Amino acid sequence: MKILKTANAMRKWLDATTGRTVLVPTMGALHRGHGALIEKARKLAGKSGRVVVSIFVNPTQFGPKEDLSRYPRPFSADAEMCQKLGADAIFHPTPETVYPPGFSTYVEEHSVAAGLCGASRPGHFRGVCTVVLKLFNVCRPDVAVFGLKDFQQCRVIARMARDLDVPVRLVFAPTVRESDGLAMSSRNTYLDAEQRAQAPVLRRGLLAAQKAFRAGETSAAKLTAIVARQIATAPIARVDYIAAVDGESLEPVTKLKRGDTIALAVFFGKTRLIDNIQT
Ligand code: PAF
């Protein structure tokens, strides 16, 4: 497995090898959720294809008060996992090479990115779109695999790729969960024992709303209230948002139909967790 640290090195390696390229963009601190994405990429690439995992903690998607400096960076363990799961290369650039002095070009999506996490984290999706387009330009993937835990990110990237004619097929993979339902996230490692014990309330709330929808309740207000009531049973939880939205446009809905999404972001202490469920 190659470890490539610059765009030039990546391009040279791509030129010197052949086969379909499947990219898994990550910020490292890899867990089983990422593992499932890499395994999926391996299957999509087949024996003759190339699986590239990018590991880059992207500064432009962190707000000024967010956790950029404390974001975990266990590169050796990440590389070992990539190797075990059959990745062919890791793209691991430094912030200085991705954002050289004078960097002044950003990509903004103005519709799907506007609400939910986009409203709570101004500039976040601008950073995501910018770095993902750069990763696409450098790694030239035929296919890129993202996890649906970051549901809004998936929709924003899909819109960006469509709007800017990016020649990549996007594959969105289901969220991988701990046995108690908590969605796997690199940020789960920030939770102390009490926060960790209470965090599965997010999944319980979303499942309760899904059950009510399947029993005939379609009111967004009532379904989100079901989620909120469940979350209120966790004394430490502080809701950022619970929203019912159209599964494609992410516009708020008042009545849910099949394929819509209930999404949430909730703080446990300083750690902000997100999750979602499809009706
Ligand atoms: O989902 C992530 O880990 C990041 O937002 C991504 C897509 C790698 C861009 O930095």
Care to describe what's here?
The protein folds into 2 domains: 172 residues, HUPs (Rossmann fold); 93 residues, Pantoate-beta-alanine ligase, C-terminal domain (Pantoate--beta-alanine Ligase, Chain: A,domain 2, 2-Layer Sandwich). The protein has 10 helices and 9 strands. It has a 6-stranded parallel sheet with strand order 1-4-3-2-5-6, with helices on both faces. A hairpin with a 2-residue loop joins strand 8 and strand 9.
Task: Explain the layout of strands and helices.
Blueprint: E1 2-4, H1 7-16, E2 21-26, H2 32-45, E3 50-55, H3 75-84, E4 89-91, H4 95-98, H5 116-120, H6 124-139, E5 143-147, H7 151-163, E6 169-173, H8 193-198, H9 201-214, H10 220-231, E7 237-245, E8 261-268, E9 271-278
Parallel strand pairs: 1-4, 2-3, 2-5, 3-4, 5-6
Antiparallel strand pairs: 7-8, 8-9
Pantoate is lined by residues 25-27, 58, 61, 128, 131-132, 150, 153.
